[in-house]
């Protein structure tokens, strides 16, 4: 029934693909991209369940041996270094679970976007939406590039550059991306080593996909809201052009309806993804502080390749936090522009009753629009600066505690 409803935008299918670039493919590979139809087919549901089971199996196949090594074999410095991948993995498990359980809310957000693209009123509105979507595409592409670089460096450096090392007892050790311990099984023996290495490589791809999928969803949704706010500003600027009774009623109704729709959409997005953003920012803050400590430590050892690896990981975490805070800041700035535009509405040229209605629009326009991390931390560039300061404070604490 939904397919036969006429669309104002004949290019909405192409526009929708343009706006959602990469994200559906990433989440489909994880088995969690929501179906926009009424129900998924049985075959599709079975495939999704299989992908979810496989993804969790790969994560735990890496998490359990690494946790055992951390508990039974790790020194203080080794535990500090290993704490990061272990915390990152636990966060990935949590984020994956949130995305699985939140598929219905994500579906509603995607439907909002689809309806907005279908109902684009004119070329100017379409161009505004595509401009915001273009920014979102670039941010998602940057995030994917950094995560791919991080995964490649973490998985390939032990194999290609470091290879085998000889310890103080003249025992040859083949390195893994993350140290592992399996009780009676020797992880250095063939084929246990090769299996563990392959599992950790596949695990890296899964966790990177979870992170980029979460970042991609928030980026697409928030930048779409920014595009809708630009359209709202355009509606407000056109309000005073013709103040005839019928035109005023129609324009005022369009402004109110559009404003309420944007706020409902943002409330749904925040409810669906605030936990994802909180986990992502929390773990990225840990990565920034601990990786900076590891970089300084390796400078003393003059280990250039490991320094490069830690630097790539540090940059990836920083970029992730920056993207979250940047899109949140773009939303705040665009909402402030809407508030300023509402002050310019020529309410004094309207009858008293209409002027009072317009006053409600102005009041609503001045209510802040934000996306939060965990419902208590507004995402903005100020928050990004605070996170950077906190990470350096943790770095100083580590240097003073461990040395």
Strands ordered across the widest β-sheet: 1-2
| Largest beta-sheet characterization | 2 strands, antiparallel
What's the pLDDT, averaged over the residues? 85
SSE pattern: HHHHHHEEHHHHEEH
Any idea what the radius of gyration is? 25 Å
Number of helices: 11
Low-confidence stretches: 1-5
Number of strands: 4
Spatial shape? elongated
From the N-terminal CA to the C-terminal CA, the straight-line distance is 67 Å
SSE-based structural type: mainly alpha
Strand content: under 5%
- Summed up, the domain count is 1
* Portion of residues within helices: over 70%
GO cellular component, one term: plasma membrane
Family: Belongs to the insect chemoreceptor superfamily. Heteromeric odorant receptor channel (TC 1.A.69) family.
Membrane topology: Multi-pass membrane protein
Protein name: Odorant receptor
Give an account of the 3D structure:
InterPro entries: 7tm6_olfct_rcpt. The chain has 403 residues and is mostly helical. It has one domain (11-402). The protein is 76% helix and 2% strand. It has 11 helices and 4 strands, in the order H-H-H-H-H-H-E-E-H-H-H-H-E-E-H. The chain has helices spanning 12-19, 23-29, 42-72, 76-101, 103-118, 123-162, 192-239, 245-301, 304-343, 352-365, 381-401, and strands at 164-166, 172-174, 372-373, 377-378. The strands form 2 sheets. A two-stranded antiparallel ribbon has the order 1-2. It has a two-stranded antiparallel sheet with strand order 3-4. Strand 3 and strand 4 (377-378) form a beta hairpin. Helix 6 packs antiparallel against helix 9 (304-343) and helix 7 runs antiparallel to helix 8. The chain starts with 11 loop residues before the first helix and ends with a helix. Residues 1-5 have low confidence and may be disordered.
């Amino acid at each position: 029934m939904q397919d036969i409803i006429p669309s104002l935008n004949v290019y909405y299918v192409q526009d929708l693909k343009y706006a959602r670039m990469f994200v559906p493919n990433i989440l489909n590979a994880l088995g969690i991209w929501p179906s926009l139809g009424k129900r998924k087919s049985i075959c599709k549901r079975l495939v999704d369940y299989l992908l979810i089971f496989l993804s969790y199996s790969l994560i735990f196949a890496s998490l359990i041996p690494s946790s055992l090594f951390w508990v039974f074999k790790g020194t203080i410095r080794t535990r500090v270094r290993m704490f990061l991948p272990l915390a990152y993995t636990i966060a990935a498990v949590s984020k994956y679970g949130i995305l699985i359980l939140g598929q219905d809310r994500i579906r509603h957000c995607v439907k909002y976007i689809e309806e907005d693209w279908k109902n684009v009123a004119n070329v100017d509105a379409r161009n505004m939406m595509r401009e915001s979507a273009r920014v979102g595409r670039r941010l998602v592409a940057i995030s994917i590039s950094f995560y791919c670089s991080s995964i490649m460096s973490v998985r390939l450096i032990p194999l290609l550059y470091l290879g085998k090392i000889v310890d103080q007892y003249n025992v040859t050790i083949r390195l893994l991306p993350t140290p592992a311990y399996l009780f009676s099984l020797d992880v250095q023996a063939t084929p246990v080593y090769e299996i563990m290495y392959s599992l950790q490589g596949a695990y890296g791809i899964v966790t990177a996909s979870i992170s980029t999928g979460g970042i991609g969803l928030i980026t697409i949704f928030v930048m779409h809201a920014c595009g809708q706010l630009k359209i709202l500003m355009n509606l407000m600027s056109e309000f005073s052009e013709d103040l005839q009774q019928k035109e005023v009623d129609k324009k005022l109704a369009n402004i109110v309806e559009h404003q309420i729709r944007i706020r409902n959409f943002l409330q749904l997005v925040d409810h669906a993804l605030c936990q994802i953003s909180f986990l992502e920012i929390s773990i990225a803050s840990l990565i920034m502080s601990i990786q900076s400590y590891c970089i300084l430590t390796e400078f003393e050892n003059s280990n250039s390749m490991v320094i490069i690896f830690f630097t790539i990981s540090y940059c990836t975490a920083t970029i992730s936090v920056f993207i979250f805070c940047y899109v949140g800041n773009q939303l705040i700035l665009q909402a402030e522009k809407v508030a300023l535009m509402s002050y310019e509405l020529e309410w004094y040229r309207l009858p008293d009753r209409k002027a009072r209605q317009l006053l409600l629009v102005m009041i609503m326009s001045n209510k802040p629009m934000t996306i939060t991390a965990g419902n208590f931390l507004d995402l903005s560039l100020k928050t990004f600066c605070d996170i950077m300061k906190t990470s350096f404070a943790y770095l100083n604490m580590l240097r003073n505690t461990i040395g």
